[in-house]
Amino acid sequence: ESLKAVHAEGLLHRDIAPDNIYLLNDGSVKIFDFGSARTVTTGRTRSLTVEIKAGYSPVEQYTRNGNQGPWTDVYAAAATFYRMITGRVPQGSMERKEKDRLLPPSKTGVKVPKSIENAIMNALCVRPEERTQSAEEFLEQLENADTKRKRIKNRKADIGSLPLAVKILVPLAVAALIGFGILLATGTISFE
Q: Using CA atoms, how far apart are residues 61 and 77, in angstroms rounded to an integer?
């Protein structure tokens, strides 16, 4: 609810973590430390300072031009919930980008309703476009007993980013090896 209120004011907190959330004696929750907060007027931010909190910062916060929005704070809130439930700081998002080894809370020995685990893991998706997009959506998923885990497709390597020489030489090398193998198998070439 607090994060929804922050976003309703057009702000991104950008530093949600256990040390910036206070539980008051009356049961209310307060978010503090708005030193990294930024105004969002179009739903997307551009050229922001890099503010990182290991385990709580999503990948888009690691660059000045990362596509930051409410989903950025949602990731950090989910990481905070993960820590509260499991007692463990989640694996860093940049590590997860390379090889995601983040265990769902139930795999750490914690008993948690599957729908809540699914909501947290949906909000912890590494890629911003696959993640829960708003605090309101996150809250809805946390409260819905039927929340399902998002299926994330493994992406194949983008060969479009390989240098042209590699794109040409690799198929040529494979063709040469196949040709050499055929010549050896047919006896056209022999080593005597």
A: 14
Residue 75's SS3 state is helix
Q: Residues 150, 127: contact at Cβ < 8 Å? A: no
Alpha helices per DSSP H over 127-190 = 135-143, 164-186
Residues 39, 11 contacting (CB under 8 angstroms):
yes
Q: How far apart are CA 81 and CA 136, in angstroms?
A: 16
Residue with tokens 């990182």: 52
pLDDT at 137: 97
Distances (CA, A) of 159 to 37, 148, 156, 166: 37, 33, 9, 10
Comparing CA positions, the residue from 125, 120, 32 lying closest to residue 72 is 125
Contact yes or no for 78/58 (Cβ under 8 A) = no
User: Are 141 and 3 within 8 A, CB to CB?
Assistant: no
Which of the residues in the chain have pLDDT under 70? 35-50, 153-161, 192
Q: What is the pLDDT of residues 135-159, one digit of tens each?
A: 999 999 999 999 999 887 665 555 5
Taking each helix axis from N to C end, the angle separating 135-143 and 70-86, rounded to the nearest 10 degrees, works out to: 40
User: How confident is the model at residue 50, as a pLDDT?
Assistant: 60
CA pair distance 160, 153, nearest whole angstrom: 19
* C-alpha 144, offset from chain centre: 22
